[in-house]
Amino acid sequence: MIKSVWQLTLALVLSTSAALAEGWSYEGENGPDHWAALSADNAICATGMFQSPFDIVADIDADLAELDIHYGQMPVSVTNNGHTLVVAGGADDHVRIGDTDYRLLQFHFHTPSEYLIDGRSFPMEVHFVHQSEDGRFAVIGAMIDEGPANPAIAQLWNVAPYDHDTTGSGEAVISIRDLLPSNQSYMRFMGSLTTPPCTEGINWHMLMTPITASAEQIAAFRSAFPHNNRPIQPRNGRLVVAER
């Protein structure tokens, strides 16, 4: 397990190589340049015009709908799916955007950040994936910069399993809101899933204020996943609206 920041001398022993040899991966013959060829379902990874991630630069400011976030506390449980660490949302966790409720399906992490903001890359990024009752997706993204340790990340890393396709859990309770900045102003744009099948039509809401994790916490994740970010995609003229 990624027990704590005090055990960072562990080598890159995650047994993800077998999982990544099947299906898609972040490098080699099954890497991002080849995702579209791995399955007909992935064709849009190569042909899509609104693929994520890209370099986010705001075009205009506007009065955007508030992100009315309702995340509670939950027992710590983390799954290693061979590509990242994933945490399932609780039954009542959701965000209201305008007049629509989107249930939190899961959140997961990338290193380094997948998106750039004004050309800047961050050490890590977290994505909160939501879906409405009518099937629409809304993703909230938050950059993770190096700084003070994050208490929620500390609890997650304490139980996170090294072996792929396994789940670690503990008795501690995590507050998901600790993974959000206090200032939730955001930039809105259309994009896609950043992993196969690269589905487009995703409403993205990128928070403009990063959260922090300690250098040790970032290194702990990288010891398991040295890099799990899709390369930057063409922006293709899409509009980015920043909250005024």
Automatic annotation (TrEMBL):
EC assignment: 4.2.1.1
Reaction equation(s) it catalyzes: hydrogencarbonate + H(+) = CO2 + H2O
PANTHER family on file: CARBONIC ANHYDRASE
Protein name per its UniProtKB record: carbonic anhydrase
Keyword hit for RNA-binding: no
Keyword Membrane part of the UniProt annotation: no
Superkingdom of the source species: Bacteria
Segment forming the signal sequence: 1-21
Enzyme class: lyase
All copies of domain Alpha-carbonic anhydrase, residue ranges: 22-244
Alphabetized GO MF terms: carbonate dehydratase activity; zinc ion binding
UniProt-listed CDD domains: alpha_CA_prokaryotic_like (cd03124)
